[in-house]
Amino acid sequence: MPIIDYYGAQGWDTQTPGLYHRQVVARDIVLASLAEQAEQADAPVSVLDVGCGDGGYLDHLAGQVGDRPVRWIGVDYSEHQLARATRLPYEFHQCDLGEGIPLPDATVDIVHAAEVIEHLYDPDLLVEECARVLRPGGHLVITTPNLHAWYNRMLFPFGIQPIFYETSSRSTQVGAGPLCRFKEQTLPVGHLRLFHRTALVDLLRREGFEPVRFRGARFHEVPRAMTWLDSLACRRPSLASILVVLAVKR
């Protein structure tokens, strides 16, 4: 399947009720950023969700701020998902992130990009575009799988392919070795680039951001017997399953 059709497929619907831990961590950071930006702004704060899907997470964020005036914006590639998003009273745009974000320069206060950057051939362009649409001092919140997660550090020396890394477009079990039986999802999610903390910091700084906070988040497919260890690793984000970073536009 061509990658342009892969992300537009109708299968990418919200399938899990509630929020993943990474979404909770990112939500708390976004809401804190929103409160900070609101104190400094004369007009309503603008929040952009990159890869917004059907708008469900954007709606969740909006539900957390009460009557505070906020301009909520979502962009996504999938026309199917955006058709579902029309039920919501927010601003949505269809776009190919490989071609940029369809918003004017310096018009947004906060950008949230959850589990997006690892799917892009050109992650540099995404960060560059986020810098372009953000006002000076604006906040960027990114979540992405951690190549250096605690279990990957143990797997790789034994010749086992790191979790989150995909070598097949048809099955996540290719290269997984003895971990195949733990794979709840066999359809690859299309990871093209994987980051660790140092790589993410380097990329952000190259594009005019200063990372100011890192948080770790759990991965929902870690075997139940190991969830306590995954939670413990979150105390040191460089070991966590998921990286959550807040960066400020310089």
Automatic annotation (TrEMBL):
A single GO BP: methylation
The organism's superkingdom is given as Bacteria
InterPro entries membership: SAM-dependent_MTases_sf (IPR029063)
Q: Has keyword Acyltransferase?
A: no
Alphabetically ordered keywords of this record: Methyltransferase, Transferase
Q: Is Kinase one of the keywords UniProt gives this record?
A: no
Q: What is this protein called?
A: SAM-dependent methyltransferase
What species was this sequence derived from?
Answer: Micromonospora polyrhachis
Taxonomic classification, please? Bacteria, Bacillati, Actinomycetota, Actinomycetes, Micromonosporales
